[in-house]
Fold this protein.
Amino acid sequence: MSRASGGQGARKDSAPLYLTFDDNALLGGLFGEHDSHLARIEQKLGVWITSRGNRLAVTGRPDATGRAKTVLLELYDMLRRGVPVGLQEVDAALRMSGVKDPTGDVTRLIAEDTVIATQKRQIMPRSPNQAAYVRALYDQPLVYGIGPAGTGKTYLAAAVAASMLTRGQVDRIILSRPAVEAGERLGFLPGDLREKVDPYLRPLYDALYDLMPADRVTDRLENGEIEIAPLAFMRGRTLANSFVILVEAQNTTPVQMKMFLTRLGENSRMVVTGDLSQIDLPSNTRSGLKDALAVTAEIEGVSVVRFTHEDVVRHDLVSRIIEAYQEQDRQRAETDPARDGEDS
């Protein structure tokens, strides 16, 4: 088999790198429908891939063929473990293939310290930053996940929380966010407390229902093992044996953020996520997230993971849109250094 649309810039005169796979039943999943997975690897790495039976020949620059080998072996390992492989997994393996983990090895999609086991599925990081984030979520009591939408910072936090709750490592999950749109004065909204804040926490609900059976989520909400706690109602509490997630933290004030961070109790994890390019506070109000990063980022036990457009796991167009907006922000910062933008 050969594809005339092979990778651009491939050096067909270089010595091919050969790979042999022993389970023919997995080759359909590895190659993809109409060889779409191989075509994606060719396109992204600039290599040329041909196959004969269960043997692949990869031709191109040595660095590119080496990465292609890493990607193909990683995907094959996933299939052997029973993990379905689609184009998203191919793209994730491509992102991971060029980055080393803390031990100096190539960052893997399936690694003991980054796979999240939930009641409904196994969750794997899809970029090196996501892998670093998952490690931090397990290892550190306070983690900041900073970056644009679509980078998995909220979903992965919910996944680790659900996993730790199911295994009895924490007693409850607490979900919180600032209700900026309602000025944190929730009393005038109709319904009980949960109904008032449901619209603001819908992304977290969606994540939990994706990770746990619906009836278990409902039961845990009713018995308090999953708690909805608007930021305005957190004052005076000590959150022990809990996994606490604060989202949209860029819309907190410094006073609110200090109050929230000091709620951390024994045997608890606290995750703070936000996008500093999406601050909805009045122009004369400093973001509590930005303030907290300046004050606490270097403290032992605190980890900060910054995501970029390259970590976006939604449609490719989303990544390009975010990159375009980031470029606009950089240009504005150059013309107006006083601007309180994302990079300040």
